[in-house]
């Protein structure tokens, strides 16, 4: 509880900038990074020296692998996401999508930075729950609607409306790339 109170105090300057009724401007790079750092501070387990929220059980790992997914977990760094923002012209009508969204950090960062609506699709139930937790924490800072779906990214879902798609997992097979492209 103490950590939550400290994080709330640290977030106070950012919260003052947010308008409760409607967000007018997305966060700056510095502000978006600060929000994600606050999440890390809230979720960090000092006993283990790690954020265990992203870890999945051996059974869940086998389920993910057995359905054609890959249970290996990695995060895109903010520098890569900033590069994407600098090189991909975003329009107000765009909808962001992260296929294989994991904990949702990359998608939330992009949503915080652009103010655009976003959808993430993740096969792992544990990582999906993590994304929902992070979305709940990010809610005061988000301008657009963010949706996380737990399911197979090759199946039709809300991602079909996306205009900007992040599909940044080198571990997916060529077959999965083809299925997603369809």
TrEMBL record:
One Gene Ontology term of the molecular function aspect: histone H3K79 trimethyltransferase activity
Keywords linked to the UniProt accession: Chromatin regulator
Domain of life: Eukaryota
Keyword Transmembrane set for record: no
Sequence ranges assigned to domain DOT1 in this UniProt record: 67-176
Keyword Ribosomal protein: no
PANTHER family given in the database record: HISTONE H3 METHYLTRANSFERASE
Protein name (database record): Histone-lysine N-methyltransferase, H3 lysine-79 specific
């Amino acid at each position: 509880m103490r950590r939550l109170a400290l994080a709330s105090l640290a977030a106070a300057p950012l919260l003052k900038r947010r308008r409760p009724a409607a967000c007018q401007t997305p966060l700056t790079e510095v502000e978006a990074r600060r929000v994600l750092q606050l999440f890390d501070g809230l979720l960090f387990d000092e006993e283990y020296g790690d954020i265990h929220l992203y870890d999945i059980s051996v059974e869940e790992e086998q389920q993910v692998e057995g359905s054609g997914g890959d249970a290996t977990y990695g995060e895109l760094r903010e520098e890569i996401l900033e590069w994407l923002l600098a090189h991909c012209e975003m329009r107000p009508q765009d909808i962001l999508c992260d296929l294989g969204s994991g904990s949702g950090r990359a998608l939330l960062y992009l949503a915080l930075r652009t103010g655009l609506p976003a959808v993430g699709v993740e096969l792992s139930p544990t990582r999906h729950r993590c994304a929902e937790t992070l979305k709940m924490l990010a809610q005061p800072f988000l301008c657009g609607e963010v949706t996380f779906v737990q399911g197979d990214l090759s199946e039709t879902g809300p991602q079909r409306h996306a205009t900007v798609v992040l599909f940044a997992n080198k571990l997916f097979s060529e077959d999965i790339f083809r299925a997603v492209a369809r």
